[in-house]
Amino acid sequence: MRFTIPANAKTWVEIDSDTEFPIQNLPFAPFFHAESEQPGAGFRIGNYVFDVMTWTELSPERDAIDLNCFSIFQEEFAAKVSEARKRVYQILSEEANDTVRARARECLVPAESLELWAGVEPRTFVDFYSGIHHASNVGRMFRPDQPPLLPNYRHLPIGYHGRASSVMPSGFDVIRPWGQIKPGDGDPIFTPTRELDFELEMGAWIGIDTDLGEQLSVADAQDAIAGFVLVNDWSARDVQRWEYQPLGPFLAKSFMTSFSEWMVLPDALIGAEVSGIPQEPAPLPYLSHPEPRSYDIQLEVTLQSARMQNPQVIAQSNSKYLYWSFAQQIAHMTSNGTPLCCGDLYASGTISGEEPGTFGSMLELTWRGTQPITLAETGETRTFLEDGDTLTLRGWTMVNGIKIGFGEVSATVLSANPAVAR
Ligand code: MN
């Protein structure tokens, strides 16, 4: 089902030579047209978006593209979006004839004129914990007298069910949450979090429905993925520390989660695969995954305070540091028979490298606040995020010398709302 667009393919659309959205990428997003408020859905090329819905309206029936733009997360979305991308490639390729080009020009709109993901929410949000270096760092910090990884870590993908209502596309600002914390030996207090953090993650949008009781193999789980995005799993560390035992994260995570708007299809990442971190001991057969198991996607985090003119890179990482693949995570999810829903979003867990400067959270970058980051432009320091800070995640990979980008997920920290009761 997956379709690779040849490395030497060219488009007739005017795009910058260094764009992260060349014709070999064609990532997908649903949207509203800002002026007409009409819904649509389409594929990004350069600074344009090809609207599939307009194409189908303007075309004879035989040329229609089979994608429901009013409600994108319909049955077989993963297969349909892959097929639609293949069609859009043919339409935008320099091989397309003049008739096709003339019709397609009517479908190309500037990306900035669209409200991406307006009115579209995930069905479910799940966050895994597959970044092994992050899990090890957290273990070293919070359980210094024990081995960094808990005994189950290398046997199953750890995860928790999150909250869908606060999963937002890039550009929605994050409001500093209130929460209950326990400072030192004192009594618990209710306060805006003092330890607001980000988590550098990737996410997979699910594009199939399964039945209650159905289990997916790892191979079938790969076909369940409609596309990948960057995810920032905002976290309130002081709230988390107090509330997480014995059931795991709750309000420390659910106030907001951000994702990048352009869903990069697995089709565009063929050629970006790399061997995963060796899995020792070998996983149980239902989790066994042939190599290559991982992707070589470079990840970057920037921070810009309200006083800064330019963002500063504070971390660089790579998706190859995930211990469990997305397919393994999904196969594990369904192993008890819970149904997958088209439109579920599953995130990877924080993706840290092994060296300082490659960590995917402030918690690790500042080693629990003991080693503040200096922002060179203004001399400000940070242990956790302050009001007015803008935090941005970016990701890209190179396939046959061509840049396949994920765009960005960016948000600014707003001060806490007045509380209802203190
Ligand atoms: Mn997380």
Describe this structure in words.
The protein is an alpha+beta fold and 422 residues long. The chain folds into 2 domains: 28-116, Fumarylacetoacetase, N-terminal domain (SH3 type barrels); 125-421, Fumarylacetoacetate hydrolase, domain 2 (Alpha-Beta Complex). 17% of the residues lie in helices and 27% in strands. The protein has 9 helices and 25 strands. Strands 7-6-21-13-14-16-8 form a 7-stranded mixed β-sheet. A 5-stranded antiparallel β-sheet has the order 4-3-2-1-5. A 5-stranded mixed β-sheet has the order 9-25-24-19-20, with no helix packed on it. β10 (178-181) and β11 (189-192) form a beta hairpin. The longest helix has 16 residues, at 77-92. It is globular and about 75 Å long. The mean pLDDT is 96. The structure holds manganese (II) ion. Residues 127, 199, 201, 233, 349-350 line the site of manganese (II) ion (MN).
What tags apply to this protein structure?
422 residues, alpha+beta, Fumarylacetoacetate hydrolase, domain 2, five-stranded antiparallel sheet, binds manganese (II) ion
